[in-house]
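Listing S7. Sequence submitted for prediction.
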Amino acid sequence: MIVTSIVGSLPVLAQLSTVKLTPLSGDASPFAGTISVGSPPQNFTVVFTTGSASSWLASKSCIGCGRTSGYSATASSTHRDGLNTTPFNTSVAGYSGFQGVTAVDTITIAGVTDPAFPFTAIQNATTPLDAFTAADGALSLVLPMNTNSADPSSGYFLLHAPGGPTNLSLAFAQDLSVGIVNFNVTDKVMAWVPASDAWSLPVQSVSFGAAASVDLQALAAQPRVAAPALTIDIESFYGKAPPEIIKAIHNAIPGSALATDSESRLMSLAVPCDPAATAAAPALKFKLTADLTITVPPSSYVARVNKTTCVVAFRSTDELSADAAIVRVGFPALRGYTTFFDGRTRRIGFSGPVESLVASAAAGDRIRSKDAAAAAAGLAVAVAAAVVATLL
C-alpha cells in the first residue's frame, strides 16, 4: 500500500470528463450513464461494471429483445466485425438465453475515445431484455480503454461518491502525469493498493466491531478454497461477506429479519428504515494490508430499496464453498470514498476520511509524522511510487 499526500494546486472533479450516473429503476438498481458508439455517434444508456470483463449492446435488429432501438452496425462507418461472427451463447445482467456476435467500433465516454473497442452485439433473445434490465447495454471497465495506446488521457477512471448515490459519478482523467489527482478538495489522502486484472485486491480479514471477525487467509488454507480477495464491483448493489458477519449484523440491529433463499442459499438481511435503529451498529471493516482498512459505516451498508424497505447491502452463502474467502463490495459500500482505478499500473486508490484509511492509530501517527517532515521540506506532489505523508 502506498499513501500519498495531495499537496498544492491540482485538478478537481469538475475539471475532469465526467459521466453522471443515475439508478436505472430504483435505489437498489445498477447505476448507468450515457456513451456514444460508432460514426456518426449512436448514444446508449449503459451500466458500467468492474466485476465483469464482458461489454455488450443490444442490436437494433435483435430478434426477441423486445426493443426497436439498439446498435446498428450498418449505420456506422467505423464498425468492424470482431473475432466471433457466428452467434454464440452469452448472458445479460447475469441471465442466460441470449446470443450475440463480437463487434469492434469507436466508443466515446465523457470525451475519452477508444477507436477500437470490442463488445458483444446481442442478436437473439429468448426473453425480452426489459425483463432483466432497462439499460441498452453494459460497459466493462475491467480492461481500461486504450490500454495499449500511447494516448495518456485514458486508462484511468474514478468513481466519485461522497455522501451517497445522489452524487455518484464516473470520471476519466485527462492528465495524470504526476500519478495522482485531487478528486475532492476535502479529501487530502490517497491510499493505493495493487490490483489484479479483475480489479480485485488482497484482503486479510473482515470484522464487525467486537461481534465477529473472520480471518480470510486462514479460511483460504482449507482444501479447495480459493485465495482471499476483495472485488470492487461498481455495478453491484449487493456485496458479499462471510456468513458470520451477516449473522452478527442481524444480532446487532433490532427488528432485522434474516432470510435464506432455498435455491441460491444466499442469506439476505432486511432492516428497519429507521436511522436510530442502525446508527449504533458497528462498522464493517475490510482489512486489506497492515496499514489500510476500508471502513463501511451503517449509513453506507444499510440502503433503502424502496419507500418502505431497507436492507443490508451485503449477502452471503450459508455454507463453505470454493469462493468462501472472496468478498465483494458494491456501490453502497463505496459511499463517502472517491475510488480511483489506475488501469495503467493496475492499482486502486481510495480517498476519504483518514480514519477510514488506516488500520490503527499507530499507523495513522506514523503517516502523519512523515507528512510533517515532507511539508517542512517543502516537497511538491510526489509521484505514485513515493510514500509521503497524509494530512497537512
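Caption to Listing S7: primary sequence and predicted C-alpha cells for the chain studied. The longest helix spans residues 361-376. The two ends are 20 Å apart (CA to CA).
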